Amino acid sequence: MAQAVAHDQKEHAAGGHGHGHPPTSLGLNSRKVGLWTFISSEAIFFTALISTYLVLKPRNIALGGPEPQDFLGITLTAILAFILLMSSLTMVLALHAVETDNVRGTRLWLGATILLGLMFLGGQVYEFNKLWSEGFHTIVITEPDGKVERIGVAEHHLEEELPHLQAEHPNAQIQDTGRKPVTWTTSLFGSTFFTMTGFHGTHVAIGVVWLSIVLVMSLRGAISSRNSLTVEMAGLYWHFVDLVWVAIFTLIYLI
Amino acid sequence: MATTAVPVPQAGERSRWATIWEWITTVDHKRIGILYIFTAIAFFVWGGIDALLLRIQLAAPENNFLSPQVYNELFTMHGTTMVFMAVMPLNVGLGNFIVPLMVGANDMAYPRLNALSYWLFLFGGIFLSSSYIIGHPPDAGWFAYAPLSANGGVLPKTNAMDFWVIGINILGVSSILGAVNFIVTILNLRAPGMKFNRMPLFVWAQLVVAFLIVFAFPSITVASILLYFDRNFGTAFFLPERGGDPMLWQHLFWFFGHPEVYILILPAFGIISEVFPVFSRKPIFGYAFIAYSSVAIGFLGFTVWAHHMFAVGMGPIANAAFSATSLMISIPTGVKIFNWLATLWGGSLNFKTPLYYGVAFIFLFVIGGITGVMLAIPPLDYQTTDSYFVVGHFHYVLFGGAIFGLFAGFYYWWPKMFGRMLSERLGIWQFWLMFIGMNLTFMPMHYLGMIGQPRRTWTYEAGMGFEFWNLMETIGALIIALSVAIFLLNVILSRRNGEIPGDDPWDGHTLEWATSSPPPAHNFDKMPVIRSRRPVWDLKYGDAQHFTEPRDVKAAGSTDEDEHSHGIHLPPPSFYPIILAFGLTVAGYGLLYIYSGGVWGIVIGLSIMWVGIAGLASEAARD
């Protein structure tokens, strides 16, 4: 009994980590509990960003801001989502490899995860770039009774859209306020979209750096099943970042 | 597990610089707790001076002691300082020192992270306070309502609110990291036998507070980042003239801001729940109800935020819903009050300073709680919002509640922390002055609010019936200042003249009283067997009075690399936490001057941070 107690206390002294899963009060590794706690905090962070997007979305439309579906191609973003989900798979494979002391597999799958992360970031840069070069027009429709309506029209839809509007509002005065690029500051859509996806992209980038450090450690032979936790922690964070993308993808691109 | 045995520090053997270096690099939760407490006391005094200046301005009608702009700056900094740089870190400081002892741990779960939290707090506080010297202090109120805070509005266009935004975020990072540390410590580092239902109620309170911080702070982080974008990068999240939504700021802020109230007050609940049983010489009445009502308060705390916004026009449905949830919070709070009273009832009361503060806490907090119930009713809120009634209400909660609870805790735990008693005579003097000063300052505010004195207004006209009570409030504030001065005197005198307590001067119940005063670096030489909620009481008065084996690591006969070990192993001191915190603060100054070369500040700051991160990571890898 005394021995067991003393042993238990020794693990406390050690901070409850370092040997895989030493006995702690909960039986869970302390670093992992800490990371889970931090991730729950991050989840609220993204919830607040996503809420901001959703709260400001109707205001953006009422002001004649650009509507996301006119610009954001579902094809590209679906591919990006697929890439990120695949990276979660390779991450799982990397963890499995390290737990079975498969050194080559560890390096391979870590490398693959990093590569997929970089591909996602590349796709995001491409998409941001494309958005910034696109334009939209806010059309102000003033009815004879003084009612004013604002509609955002993508530049590439302008020629087909204007006759439609003319037909729908035969007596109204229709005014084009001119071209504006879709940027961070030209509309509420731009502000919320670039902020939210920008923060997500930053998280992906941090994940890539983290995984790269783990890969370097593995290449130096410093990673084995004894400290598979190093890989597992990076993986937990990586899966969380992927999950956030699933939420963002669903809310922006699918709804 | 490569670790170094840490000898018990011995005073008088080192040079002054070695001592300073030791404190800068310390990762010992007790030292970090002490750093927190003294830094926070300094900010508490600073915030108190802000308040005194405000009160001097309001002592007479149409006074010109302060200009309206300076008045705005002072009430903003008073609120911000007291909330983020005084009461919160005082709670964290006490928790830092006491919680690991109470659960029977050798340190916090992440000692280096703990140091990082402290240095971020210190630098964040310095960052905010530096606005007095190198810029303009924030001036849009501690809740920084947009659009007033967003683009200058009627206020002069300065970087005042950028100081606020960046400072709050540095302090926020500190709080979130600290909270993660508390959660893991409490969940995972409990000594054998310390089950959840045996944890001291102060630990329960700190656990709930840590979860509140983890879930509430991201909301203000997002809000303030968006505010920074609006102010500096031309977005319009909160600017109504460009379609933004000022109410979004209020929702995001109060989703943080209301749980923040419980972050400030719950540790005081925990302190009171420790002080009452010890000074009544009885077990706490209704342990489970007190513990779980903290959880209930924490949970409900996330459902009431919009009661701060009744008057902005959310409509009757939303107002009614938030009114109902707000009223509901009085149930778990009331449960606590009755349990505390029942603990005192029939007890053999040992009327020492901590109990004076404890009893006064109940009296004052109930007043603040009842005015809180009144404000939760929208029609009454319409009448009194933004008046001195609200100011009176929350000072009864935060001064009568949080600060009185903290003083109870100081007098109770001071002998444990420093090995010296605080003077009982000065303590009683301090108590009565604070009690009288507090009531004289804040009670008339209810009346003044009812007859129409608006808050956050730099002066008032003569002949409106405000003069007499405003003068009384100013006198009350001076009495509070005198009381705080006596406390500081008590602290200074106790260093030399304080009675030397035994390990257990109050006949305590919980584990911190089982070790020496002050405790050794590794906390416990021997650990009582924990078979109940009062392990030290069991040890002294129970039938089986025994300790577990001394905590000799070699005796555990475990396998690993601790050859040179002959004691409890703690991580070695580290210089990297302060480096990392410094880097983040430099980057913060970069953000402040983003359009005048601040980018370089960010680059340099991030580079310094990287050194800190890399250093900490390599140290962690060596553990």
What features would you describe in this structure?
The complex is a heterodimer of chains A (255) and B (623). Chain A has 255 residues and is mainly alpha-helical. Chain A has two domains: 168 residues, Up-down Bundle (Four Helix Bundle (Hemerythrin (Met), subunit A)); 47 residues. Helix content of chain A is 67%, strand content 9%. Chain A has seven helices and three strands, in the order H-H-H-H-E-E-H-E-H-H. Chain A has a three-stranded antiparallel beta sheet. Chain A is elongated, with a radius of gyration of 25 Å. With 623 residues, chain B is mostly helical. Chain B has two domains: 535 residues, Up-down Bundle (Cytochrome C Oxidase, Chain A), CATH 1.20.210; 48 residues, no CATH class. Chain B is 65% helix and 1% strand. A two-stranded antiparallel ribbon of chain B has the order 1-2. In chain B, helix 2 runs parallel beside helix 4, helix 4 runs antiparallel to helix 6 and helix 14 runs antiparallel to helix 15. The termini of chain B are close together. The N terminus of chain B is likely disordered. Classes of the chains: A mainly alpha (255), B mainly alpha (623). Chains A and B meet through helix 1, helix 2 and helix 6 of A and helix 6, helix 7, helix 8 and strand 2 of B.
